[in-house]
Amino acid sequence: MPELPEVESLRRSLLDLVVGRRVESIRVRESRLREGVDGRALRRDLAGRRCLGISRRAKYLILEFEREARLLVHLGMSGRFFATTEAEPLDRHDHLIFTLDHGGQLRYRDPRRFGLVRSGSARSFARDPRLTELGPEPFDPVFDGTHLAVRARGRRGPVKPFLMDARVVVGVGNIYASEALHRAGIHPARRVDRIAAARWEGLARAVREILAASIERGGTTLADFVDGRGRAGEYATALGVYGREGEPCPVCGAAIRRSVQAARSTYHCPRCQR
User: Fold this and answer.
1) Which residues are catalytic?
2) Would the N or C end of the chain have less CB density within 10 A of its end CB?
């Protein structure tokens, strides 16, 4: 699943291609995504309107249009949202096609159909629980060690699932939780009620550093993620522990171990992380 750095990389890649362009037509070839796509609402809200900007909240992409119209996109497990030309042959999984005023197209492709594409107003999305019930962005000033320590009060579970809880902080998926915990020197199974304040601060700093580094390199492509221009992310070559079971830790040389937490693969260094 694309995580925060991948969605942010996608956002940045689409800015020059989409902002300032007007939607000429919208075609829905397959409406059966995670939630049914309402083609009539898409055309009512977006057709004839110019895109004014693109923002991101957690792993949601938000395209902003004239007259306060919005398009909310979540890539799910296998979604792609990309710019192309009308001459590009359609893929069988190109479910939505937005034709723009310069003849180019935005297409939403999703083989597994776990994504979400829906339109609405700025006011409606300001009340949408998908967005309002989320925790802070990792680059927001309110996200720091104190925030993590406060949210951990009364809990006893392991730190890695805690860090991946979008109500605590958004955008820290499985890959980046493993990487941030390694950088902070914290074992992924350590209970949150046994982490001192200074270590919480180090973990918050590690989250920001890891995510920023991944964004700088276009995100992590382990399977088929590409941005809006078709470019793969390059951060996979910089991963310290994720997917490197049995390989030497880049810090101390100990063999990296793999375990399973909450049905997800977890990677850590048995020497560096306590």
Assistant:
1) 2-3, 59, 264
2) C
